[in-house]
Amino acid sequence: MFHRKAVDRALALVGSLFATTGLVATSVVIGGVVAPEPASASTPPPGQAGSLDASWGSGGVATLTVSGFTNLTPSNRVVTLANGDVVFAGVQRGLAGSAVVVALTPAGALDSAFGTGGVVRTGLGSGAANDSISIALQSTTGDILVGTSETSGSASLGVVERLTPAGALDATFGTAGRTALANGYTGVTSLISNAAGVIDLASRQANNGDDPPVIQLKASGLLDTSFGASGYGAVDTEFPPAVIADLAFGTGGQIVATGTAVVAGVTHTFVGRLTSAGQPDNTFGSSSIAMFNISGASIADAPAAVAVDGSNRILVTGTTTTSPTSVFALRTTSAGAPDGSFGTSGVSFSTYDGVLGSGGAVTVDPAGRYLVAGGTAASGSGANALGLERLTSGSSPFDSSFGTTAHPGRESIACPSGAGAASALSPGGGLHPIVAGSCNGSLVIALLNSGTISNLTMTALTPQAPAGHGTVPLSSIPNTAITGTDPNVTGAPGFGLPGFGLPGFGLPGYYDPLTSSPLIDPAVDQVPLTSIPLSPPASGTGPTSWEAALAGTPLDGIPTQSITLAQVLALNPRPASLSGITLADIALSGSTLMKVSLGAFLLGTTPVSSLPTPAGSSSWCAFLAGQPDNCTTNSAGTAQSLIDLELGGDSLQSYYSGTPVNLVGLAVQNSPLTYLPIQNIDMSLTSLGQVATTALKTPATFLNCTPSSTSSSCDTLFDAQKQSNLAVT
């Protein structure tokens, strides 16, 4: 571990909520000015949340230069395939036929089995000066959706095509693999797909005279004429010209859009919402639209991305055109009003850990935290580094467990040369957040350690050593450290995610692979199967749908919305097709289980009454007061597990980050931690590896060597593991 010399400096936030007299009734003016941070581009020390995962690419960053293209504009999405490949895309503006899609292996190298040497040259891209590209994963097929433009005569048309996981054009999609939009729709600015495979995309219009369009395609690629007006909906901003920058799905299937509209000569940020049928959602904002001036009166906004959290609150990020520029994160309530409990009047401003900031991407991780990315610089007036921040839900949202010590919650990844910024984010299932963008015209993808859980100590399972050694927070153990080398772990279905070998659905020592796990929690097993859709199996051999998994059982033919997980668990005998289903086989992005953090899963069905009282609160009931699921609204109260509370809509991040949970003497119930051997922790990635073997109270429990302060093969746990001297316990 190394230390960085830096001086903490308070972020100056000036945010005010003004009356909208003189503008429009739906417009909120929120002026934001940020004092630049005196910093250099930097990521946290190895092993900490936000640090680069050194096993990926080169030191945690993969840089891709595609021959023939010198200045690729990156896509606003990065996706992960069932085989662990990370897929990204880019298009060179001003050069027709330049749209490319790339796939990297879980190690960060181009996947030679994808396209040609890891690259698919789609031939798309119209050469327009504002060309853009967006990609999405279609969960029902595991295929890659690509939205951009193509040239038709002298015109530019928006187009969507579908690629297989091998990078081949899927001729069964649309017409010969692609769907072109109607004349006048000149490109695709955002592309999303829901759990049913339905595709929604935003486009530009050639005349910019109408409200920005949202088009819906069926999973097959055909226009869904039941949506909007014959497949074409519109966000009714009332202030053209307006352009959609990004789309996201609401928790109720609504379609949320953000972009720019010009109000009284000033570029504003709009947030609009359509119903799932493509009609204006008049329960949102003012007649389906909320208008904001984030940068302040007479200063233009540049919104870039939108996400929706588990409470249906909306997150928008973008750039203020103040001097210097700053990144903003706006949160609205589910009804479209600024959420005053977040940041200052609903907005957070920063320059990451540099002197300027821009916003390019936002996502919500499985713990309910917000990841924001864009561009920054240690000095000068142009971005030359990828900026990243992690926010919690409060008025001081920067997550102190993430990022650099000098700038808690924030960090940056410097470009080797030239300009650069981030344009895409993925929570990576909570295991490896992915940030992607461009540096000097090349595509870059970085993999980070997330530190998903804070202050959950490992003392029940790891060495009992003197103070300062025996209690090690899991936040200092990156998820990549869980190697899953023990056959009892890797052989059991469950948390079958890349790099994380914890058992989940089935625990070692049990014949029945779907019981005695966190998923027997009543809050989970009463969930209908439609809320936990299956994705293409990670193994490539399992069932692709619940209908297929239940074929030939008493539940065969019953609509899955009428079947609960409890009914599946009760099947006796259980069909073999269910035995191999793991969390990796569930489309978490469209699943109720996405609300549950890794911390809650690891503590299983343990009631919160058995856990330490949240720091700063007199009781669990006092801590839960004001949350959706609390001791007043739910008679089960503290008999519930953390899983119960999170599925009920509660946010527990402050508990994970602020309250130590010591496993010694804690009677955990249905917890995968019970079966996690010390050998399954990569000691090179955690401070636990620096524990001296001579400090262990029961060395024979953990070592196959004699503790020594001088032996290079048995002086620390790291050295013992390196020499295969750790016992599997």
General description of the model:
- The chain starts with 12 loop residues before the first strand and ends in a 7-residue tail after the last helix.
- The chain is 7% helix and 26% strand.
- By secondary structure, the protein is mainly beta.
- Mean pLDDT is 77; it is low at 1-27, 30-41 and 452-516.
- The strands form seven sheets. It has a six-stranded mixed β-sheet with strand order 1-2-20-19-18-17, with no helix packed on it.
Summarize this, please?
The chain has 729 residues and is mainly β.
Keywords:
single chain; about 725 residues; mainly beta; six-stranded mixed sheet; 10 helices; globular
Mean pLDDT: 77
Q: Report, as a whole number of angstroms, the end-to-end distance.
A: 28 Å
State the share of residues found in helices, binned by percent: under 10%
* Net shape: globular
Q: What gyration radius follows from the Cα positions, in whole Å?
A: 25 Å
Count of individual helical segments: 10
Tell me about the largest β-sheet: 6 strands, mixed
Structural class designation? mainly beta
Uncertain regions spanning at least 5 consecutive residues? 1-27, 30-41, 452-516
Strand order of the largest sheet: 1-2-20-19-18-17
- Per DSSP, what share of the residues sits in E-state strands of 2 or more residues? 25-35%
SSE topology sketch:
Blueprint: E1 13-18, E2 27-34, E3 61-64, E4 73-74, E5 79-80, E6 86-91, E7 100-104, E8 119-121, E9 134-138, E10 143-152, E11 155-163, E12 178-180, E13 185-193, E14 199-205, E15 213-217, E16 232-234, E17 242-249, E18 255-263, E19 266-274, E20 289-293, E21 301-308, E22 314-320, E23 326-332, E24 347-350, E25 356-364, E26 370-377, E27 385-391, E28 410-414, E29 420-426, E30 434-439, E31 442-447, H1 487-490, H2 522-525, H3 546-549, H4 565-569, H5 598-602, H6 620-624, H7 642-647, H8 653-658, H9 699-702, H10 717-722
